[in-house]
Structures are given as structure tokens and as C-alpha cells.
Amino acid sequence: MGEKRSVMFVCLGNICRSPMAEAVFNEVVMQRGLADKWYAESSGTGGWHVGCSPDHRTMSVLKINGIKYKHSAQKFNLEDLNKFDFVFGMDKSNVDCINRKKPSYNTKAKIFLLGSFDPEAKTSGKTDIEDPYYDTDLRGFEKCFQQCMRSCQAFLDEYN
Question: From the candidates 80, 131, 144, 152, which is the catalytic residue?
């Protein structure tokens, strides 16, 4: 067995979108029988929530969709660009932040916008996975879940 390939999902605070993407990715990997081939983590570009659990609405949507998940928020750091094979920003702002931090020398990670893998983005043009943090209900979180599911499945279709 070869070394596991690795992915890092990055959003702003690591309590909504990126932990959702990590949980969804791990679920898809498990369903496809690929757990021995992939490793995933998530982080945030900001450190405000380091050590905190994901937002309760993220956890509710994961539970509704039958996904068990446990996570403590962490901050994205430069070492992640050499630790992971793929780094996914949840929106263009996250990708820009990652690219600004990227050193001038080559790093291991390929940096992508996760939503660019979403098949629906080809018709809608919406590649950002919008931050649902300020939503008052679960609709934004459910939309985030669906985008992450489509994007992670399509990514694995292409890169596995």
C-alpha cells in the first residue's frame, strides 16, 4: 500500500464550511472504500476559533445527513502547503489568502477552489461555497453541505 494522499479544506474560521467539507470528504471516501488512500483535515485562515468545536448548525446538518464528526478548529499555516497534496479554499477570498501566504518556492500542495469541482457550477457559475455563519436557520448550511458533497464526489472522480 502506498502513502495516503492528503487534502486540507480551508475557510475563514474553521467552524462552518471547511469542517463540513472535511466531514463530507471523509464520508465519501469511506463509502467508496478509499479510507486507506486518503487523509483529510480542515483549518481556517483566521485564528479566532482555534480549539473550538464546529458551529452547532454545521453539526446539525451533518447529523441530519447521517455523518458523525468530531473536530477542533485550527489555523492554516505555511507548513500545510508542504504537508498536504491538495489545499481547497471554500471561496475565492480564502484561495487568495492562501496564495498570498504561499512562499515563492515550489510547495507540494495544489491549491484549488473546492466549488470549482461542483458539476452545478458549470451552469450556475457559482464556485464559491458561501459562508452560512450569519444565516438564522439551517438553509445555508444545507446548501453548503450539498455543494461540498457534489464537489468532493467530483474531485474524487477525477483524482482517485
Answer: 131
